Amino acid sequence: MSIIEVTDLNLFYGERQALFNVNISIEDKSITALIGPSGCGKSTFLRTLNRMNDMIPGVTITGTVEVAGNNIYEDNIDVEVLRKNIGMVFQQPNPFPKSIYDNIAFGPRLHGITNRSELDGIVETSLKAAVLWDEVKDVLKKPAYSLSGGQQQRLCIARALAVNPQILLMDEPTSALDPISTAKIEELLVELKKKYTIVIVTHNMQQAARISGVTAFFLNGYLIESGETDKIFTAPNDPRTEDYITGRFG
Length: 250
Ligand SMILES: Nc1ncnc2c1ncn2[C@@H]1O[C@H](COP(=O)(O)OP(=O)(O)OP(=O)(O)O)[C@@H](O)[C@H]1O
Prior knowledge:
The chain is of the alpha/beta class.
């Protein structure tokens, strides 16, 4: 069953078109990897899925993005609710300058949860889901900045999970991390796929091959092809995909 349905999507930064007629359907509870050379529109596309481009002045979008059957670009969409349902994790871990506990409790508090034991429960469940609980359960009052980069990134994932999203968007979430932290996050994402839909931008093709079920290849703002990751990496339909994955450019 598909959860995201993108139809004839075009995006312009001012006069300049950055996405051209993108069509893709993304399955529920799956990992989709977005690959392609620098500047091809992967991050721009990712941001269209929870309207993060709304924050950039001069952006216009045509076409539709349906999430669970609703076009997220309709006027009556509450963008706050949308972003609660579709969380985002960035390249650099970006915890708030607060304690570990308060980072996780921030979103739930914003959405009106004040009961201490309920918040405690959410903090524990979210940290466990992000496989960070055992490392931080005795230091929840410590600043998030006292954690390592890899731990901070898992904290950011836990923070996204704390508001109960359906979808997680990730923009190169491991590119600032060492190989061991990267492996932990990859393991975590494969586990999270059981409950969440994940769309991840990655420059690391081994990573795409290791964790994703579907890979989408972008070039110059066009979605050249998307399909089962095994197929894209072994027998792509388009010669440009083959050139990219075999390292002929990018
Ligand atoms: N805020 C912005 N304003 C204007 N142009 C932008 C903006 N963000 C991106 N672009 C342009 O849109 C195009 C696509 O950029 P985007 O960042 O989506 O590509 P990308 O594939 O994610 O690249 P990278 O892999 O380097 O992160 C590029 O030409 C870029 O210069």
